[in-house]
Amino acid sequence: PRPRTHHIGDLVLYESHSILHGRPFALQGRFMANVFIHFEPIGPLDGPELVDGELPPYVLPGSEEERNWRKRNPLGHKIMKTQQFETGSTEAHRSAMEGNLEHLKNAVEANEEVVNAQDKNGWTPLHESIRSGKGEVVKFLIEKGANVNARTQGGRGGSVLWWALEEHGEEHEIIDVLNEFGAKNIPPGAEL
């Protein structure tokens, strides 16, 4: 690729690993500045969580920034439980999303009310099961009492069937399962 010449007022954003770099303000005169924004995950990750080390992953050991960072953070790199982002998701949400029927059955067996548990966005395990693409997971949840017409966003978002159509299209097995149980295609914002 050819090098690009940037002009006054250009906005440049690019990502490298967990860092978003940008120049959100117009350049003026002979001066130039870059803004580096670092994002750290504060919720659960898919895999080992590396949030309790000596330094955050974006600080280079032995650098000037390490000395500055240690002055500002004498206790090291720790995220306290009170600072963690709580999504409201349950093990049933995660198992349904992953299509793991065995784990989902265990979660529902431990607490049957979990089939209609909503996370902070109003997603139930049935909504999450759409992502898995597995009809047997969807069918299991409905047979255990999941609301086939549950809507996200406090009842203002899309229904389970609407999300399934968005994700998979009309020819997917999940659509057949939902239709078999009388699911309605309700788009976000629709009044009933």
UniProtKB/TrEMBL annotation:
Keywords, ordered alphabetically: ANK repeat, Repeat
ANK repeats: 121-153
Pfam families: Ank_2
Protein name in the entry: Uncharacterized protein
Xref: SUPFAM superfamilies: Ankyrin repeat
PANTHER family according to UniProt: ANKYRIN REPEAT DOMAIN-CONTAINING PROTEIN 39-RELATED
